[in-house]
Backbone:
């Protein structure tokens, strides 16, 4: 019997076991069974090239299941609250992002101004406005509603570059959009929070500017400097930073889930639906806004992904800075796994749909011009 089949059978047994212990109210064991089930599913996905991109998200679900069933293990260790790890972890993640950037990523603005202006504008106009509309539709508590607006006001998600690559879209544009939206976030994110979320909670504009600067801008600049002056000298760091970033994101989500577990049990279903609508709206309106601007298909795909994916880690860090991790931090915590599932699905679907052969179109146009010149 093949290893793949054994893993699948093992996963089925775990799923059945989870349902049985849940039905008999043996919740002490249900969380462990659910966690191992997700781990086994992740192991199966990693064995298939087309599906391995989902493995990280499933591992996040495994960790979240433990946080939901046994939150006491992820809230504090002794007298030390684990929430103190969120900001340092986010700074490490943003440093890793900086090491992957260079000056040429910003120079690209000059080379493709239309795509950059359109992408950044769509991102910061569509997502905060859709978030505000969602809070008017769903009757969430004020701090939970503010969290939805917070995730909508954050810059592009770090996973957007990977999703863009999988979708065979414009990777150079994706990297540039992520960089630009990140660097303007200290002013833009607090502005939209004040405009849209000010009715729900008090927003200290300048405090948020400083929080974003120390959480995002300073680490990214440090990463840029590292890439400029020390790149290649610490090859091991280059190799392990993506793994460190993924572990960091997972830990942040787990700590937030544990802290907000009780509130999540109350609003969980509606919040998941609201966040899913928010995320999918970003893809939809981002793509069709770019189409209306008559941009190339690969640029339309890029902008759709960049609009729909948010920096959930930053949203969580800002919720912690406001002292409202268990309420304002819920939407970012829910948004992260959802956007990875939908983003991977969209990217793989686009990957199977070839882009128009622009080179052939350009060659045909050139041939027509030559023929016209001859006549």
Residues:
């Amino acid at each position: 019997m093949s290893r793949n089949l054994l893993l699948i059978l093992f996963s089925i047994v775990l799923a059945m076991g989870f349902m049985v212990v849940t039905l008999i109210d043996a919740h002490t064991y249900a969380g462990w069974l659910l966690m191992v089930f997700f781990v086994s599913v992740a192991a199966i996905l990693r064995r298939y090239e087309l599906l391995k991109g989902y493995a990280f998200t499933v591992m996040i679900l495994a960790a979240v299941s433990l946080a939901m069933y046994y939150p006491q293990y992820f809230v504090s260790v002794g007298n030390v609250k684990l929430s103190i790890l969120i900001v340092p972890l986010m700074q490490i993640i943003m440093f890793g992002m900086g090491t992957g950037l260079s000056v040429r990523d910003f120079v690209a603005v000059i080379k493709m101004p239309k795509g950059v202006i359109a992408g950044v504008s769509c991102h910061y106009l569509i997502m905060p406005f859709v978030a505000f509309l969602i809070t008017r539709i769903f009757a969430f508590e004020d701090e939970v509603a503010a969290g939805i607006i917070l995730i909508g006001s954050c810059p592009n998600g770090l996973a957007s570059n990977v999703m863009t690559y999988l979708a065979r879209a414009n990777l150079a544009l994706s990297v540039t959009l992520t960089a630009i939206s990140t660097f303007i976030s200290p002013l833009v994110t607090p502005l939209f929070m004040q405009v849209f979320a000010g009715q729900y909670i008090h927003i200290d504009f300048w405090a948020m500017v400083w929080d974003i600067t120390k959480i995002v801008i300073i680490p990214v600049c440090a990463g840029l400097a590292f890439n400029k002056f020390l790149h290649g000298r610490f090859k091991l760091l280059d190799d392990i930073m993506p793994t460190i970033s993924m572990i960091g994101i997972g830990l942040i989500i787990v700590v937030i889930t544990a802290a907000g577990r009780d509130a999540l049990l109350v609003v969980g279903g509606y919040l998941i639906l609201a966040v899913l609508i928010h995320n999918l709206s970003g893809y939809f309106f981002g793509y069709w806004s770019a189409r209306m601007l008559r941009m190339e298909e690969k640029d339309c795909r890029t902008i759709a992904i960049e609009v729909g994916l948010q920096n959930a880690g930053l949203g969580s860090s800002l919720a912690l800075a406001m002292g409202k991790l268990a309420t304002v931090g819920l939407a970012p915590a829910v948004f992260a796994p959802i956007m990875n599932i939908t983003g991977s699905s969209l990217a793989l679907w686009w990957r199977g749909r070839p882009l128009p052969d622009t080179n052939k179109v350009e060659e045909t146009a050139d041939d027509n011009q030559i023929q016209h010149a001859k006549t």
